[in-house]
Design a protein that fits this description.
The complex is a heterodimer of chains A (444) and B (298). With 444 residues, chain A is α/β, with parallel strands linked by helices. Helix content of chain A is 46%, strand content 14%. In chain A, α2 runs antiparallel to α14 and α18 runs antiparallel to α19. Classes of the chains: A alpha/beta (444), B mainly alpha (298).
Chain lengths: 444, 298
Amino acid sequence: MKNKWLISFLVVSMLVFLAGCGKSSSGTSGGESSVLNGGAGDKATELSYWTFVELHGQHFEKMLEKWNAANPDRQIKLNVTVMPYDDMHNKLSIAVQTGVGAPDIADIELGKFPDFLAGEPQLEPLNDVAEPFKGTVVQSQLDLYAKEGKIYGLSTHVGATVAFYNTEILDEAGVDYKSIVTWDDFKKAGIQVYEKTGKYMGTADTSAIWQASLLLAQQESDLTDADGKPQVNSPEMVRAMTMLKDLQDNNVISTIAGGQPDTEEAYGEYNSGNYAAAFMPLWQMSRYTNYMKDLSGKISIAPLPVLEKGMHRSYGGGGTGTVVTKTAKDIQLAKDFIAYAKLSLDANIEIWNTLGFDPINMSVWDMKEVTHNPENQFVKYFVNNPFDVLNEIKEEINLIKSTSASPTINNVLCTVTLNEIFEDGKDVQQALDDAQTQIEQELK
Amino acid sequence: MIKNFLYSQKVAPYVFVLPFVLVFIIFWVYPLLSSFGMSFQKVTLGQEASFIGADNYTKLMGDTIFFKAVRNSAVYMILTLLILIPFPMLFAVLINSKAMWGREFFKSSFFFPALTSVVVAGTIFRLMFGEMEGSLINSLLGVFGVEPVKFLKGQTTGFVALVALASWRWMGVNMLYFLYGLKNIPDDYYEAASIDGASAFQRFTRITIPLLKPTTIYVLTISIYAGLAMFIESMMLWNGNNSPKNIGLTIVGYLYRQGIEKNNLGYAAAVGIVLLIITMVINLTQLALSGMFKKEEE
């Protein structure tokens, strides 16, 4: 009798186990999935969309409602799957190259984009749907995701990098962020902040290259040379890293859990008021409103400090290209929809409203009723209006190229080099020379 | 005809082993041969593969990150062997002893971690070994006045976390193997030994350990393989395959990085073949030394 129960128990547990396996392998791709209806009728085409940023789904949800209302005969249901960054890019890469299991639409991050353009891109060219919007959006943002004249991804934002200051901490230390123009000013202010409050002014990033990139952009330099070859031990890079190392030695900046401001651990550190400043692309705003709610009303936005007065005060950091895969169910529909959802004027206004990104249609930057809408969550959260700063630095937004060497450069700097410099105190020149050797070896 | 075939004493055994042979050929021999072939090619998904001779292997020999991965895997394997063989054996003997109270409770609680998913366990250990003051381990250290440690950013401290995770997870499984081995030792031997005046320690070293040898060899063999092939634990602990300065990179992690992340499947296949060779050499040596290949004597 006892045995019978045991056997039934085992059988049931086996079935549960098998059912569990069956479910996970049946196509949810392991991420969190949800189907957006957007008021679509029964005849709507269901398209699948992969992203690595949960917030991007919210924007698509809004644009989907508008699209379905405007195109009753071409309605869409969007099946959104959110996956972690590495995971999504790995899965997408395998899926598009094997031609099996890829979604119709996907977000690809700028740093990973060159991997998808290698060889014969398995993505649909978007020139025909982007053409009508030429002239209204920043051309360099269209070129960013193009190869040999064909556009493969539609950009989300300019990503103008700015400084985010916690005014509460700065007031306590008696520092006025408006007087910070150069990195020397920043250093003086930082020493004062550390002496008065015991808090660090900023972070020494070990797992991202925002800081390295913005300092290179200020010097009109780049991580790769004109031919796209890596040059991570250039004099400009050495100057940048030496300056950051000096800031670290003076307790102005310090390494942070998570390795950079845009990580879950770091949100917590910032939210508890342990760091007074972050130098991040403008999209970091959405991280503040979503993950650092305690700082509401305390964060000011300002142009970046520069090495020497007169240098350009910003660079376009990060970015996401939305693509249509070659295996998409209805290629034309997917293309028309993403052009509508990313490039139209409406879309650009919503990208600011929902996501708090700096839209690539720059005429939005001048629409006071949109940018200064007192009901907007970002306008409410921040001390000053981000567009006042953006319009001030409009002409100073440099770019760092994304080439086929970029993913490798990024990987070596973020896993090895930056850790060696800021965690182990390795000599800057030596660390960068080693990085250059390593990158060249890997690219062979 | 069919009946004859099925009832034939000659054919039946082959029919019974057929499923295993098929599985072995389809899921083991074929992939092995195919990856051996791939290791001499440049393979990029979606494109025609091209034969490049031993280029992948020569590149591998000059690849410092690969050697870092091999070193990490080897150190991890040795540490897990040092912890995950003696301690489970000891616990198994304790739990098997009649004097022990709450045996079933300890048995199940030791085994429990093996039932949790590595993903969950890895995430929890990552938070426990976080570098912030408030993380579990650092707040415990804080009680003793120790400054917060950046566990997952240093080689030694990173391995402390990694081995802690492995020990927590696999202790119970290895213990069950040993318990099973202990059940097969007849009580008579112990009785006879006690009558002859053997102490508890003598009974352990003279009866338990020798008679547990087949179990020990089995556990050793699978632990060597598991140690060298470890990947998910590291991936979960560092929240991705890219640990700072590659302190948590393992051979399989490197295979994954080259094959999946960098779409260089030929090179990844070469890494896999090298891993196979290392594992085979170590295990065959170990099995030969422990006399597993000798014919049954007597």
